[in-house]
Amino acid sequence: MHADGVIRTPYVEMARYLDATGQAALEQKRREAEVLFRRIGVTFAVYTEGGDPERLIPFDVIPRILSHEEWMHLCRGLEQRVRALNAFLTDVYGPQEIIKANRIPRELVLENEGYLPQMQGFTPPGGVWTVISGIDLVRTGPDAFYVLEDNCRTPSGVSYMLENREAMFRLFPEICARHRIAPVSHYPEELLETLKSLAPASCAGEPCVVVLTPGPYNSAYYEHSFLADEMGVELVEGADLFVKDLVVYMRTTAGPKRVDVIYRRIDDDFIDPEAFRPDSVVGVPGLMAAYRAGNVALANAPGTGIADDKAVYPYVPEMIRFYLKEEPILSNVPTFMCERPADQDYVLANLDKLVVKLARGSGGYGMLVGPHATEEQRADFAARIKARPGDYIAQPTLALSTVPTLGEDGIGPRHVDLRPFILFGKTVRMVPGGLTRVALRPGSLVVNSSQGGGTKDTWVLLEDPPEAPPLALPPPEEPAAPQSQDGQSQTPGGMTQSQNGQSQSQGNN
């Protein structure tokens, strides 16, 4: 809702529906969603807490809704950002013009663990490094979207986006029919076409595409198998592939079959024991040699991790200006680099107001939410920053937007972020929406599923509905009445933004 209590236009129909639907009916739908997800097997894995690592992904039955105009604005900003990141990767593994122009510190790039010297001087098929990107966004007001972080290596979560939409159509056909919702079900076809467009020139006929997974014990294995199945391609492990004469082959019952494009969901260090870690048992020996020979395409290209490093993140607006000669459409969250003496002094003096994160951390681990931390926790982080300042960044707290979410006490506001997925091949493609991650606990800023967060379906309306008469909800008579919309949080004192923790992406994933 707007600040004056009037429901925002995209939510008018949903507000009416929620106002007319009792808590018991919504709870029943939530239980049905849980049964559905359990039957399908929509899970993720957490390995740090002991016991069974497989968890059911939490799903909230109230969708997040974006207007057509809002989405088009995001599309323009996302495409601009991905093109700039790709240009940055091409440059730093090539002539390094941005470093020579002193627009980004040389040591920050070339001494970064995400930078792979093995990729120096190499151009990926089609000149595309970031084939699949997930850009995390947060909102602080009706027209204020910020980029929280860039995920350029192996962004995950798209399977939850697709399964969430399927669940909503099954559980709420009547309310779905009352909205003109842009579809997302064509994402696997878009992904497959993008991957095929990268096939090397030596490919004869229809490109053979595979999904390379580290195996069923990986936290995102469900997504690996889901996408392979939806694209109609083989899901393979390292042992299923071999390299001969600089060509990659897949073992099949009919004999070896040449592979042209690999959508790899294995970290750089493990994809080829001959090029990186010799102890890797999930990679393919000789894969990098075949890749450098131009006989196979990898998505995403090895070495893209330098583009989503949190210490590099503050320089993305400058990349846009340097490579595209444009002003950024989407803003960054202001970021303090603890390796800079002045920034470190400010961070240490204001730990109670800031969010501190590991520059290369993920999944919500290794971070401090200052306003919610104890004195002992802040002291611990102060010691860590002093010992290894280059490992940490800090960001101010923001008043994050909230959306209506079904909790134990009825419908209430919960903080969210948004991860749209951008495909970059011969063209840039995006399905409308993305994965909305939601902090399920009241007041929490942590949206990661590994940290107790959940997901929502994200609706992008095909066109803005005609201006409806102002609708204000009556005073709630029971806890189930709507309390908040995708506007500014009304939590006293403001809320901290989120990134790898607050609004944290699942890591590389």
From TrEMBL:
A Pfam family that the UniProt record links to this protein: CP_ATPgrasp_2
Ranges annotated as biased composition (Polar residues): 483-496
Compositionally skewed regions (Pro residues) per UniProt: 467-479
Ranges of Low complexity composition bias in the record: 497-509
SUPFAM superfamilies attached to this UniProt entry: Glutathione synthetase ATP-binding domain-like
Region feature (Disordered): 445-509
Annotated Circularly permuted ATP-grasp type domain residues: 63-439
Domain of life, source organism: Bacteria
Annotated protein name in UniProt: Circularly permuted type 2 ATP-grasp protein
Organism: Pseudoroseomonas ludipueritiae
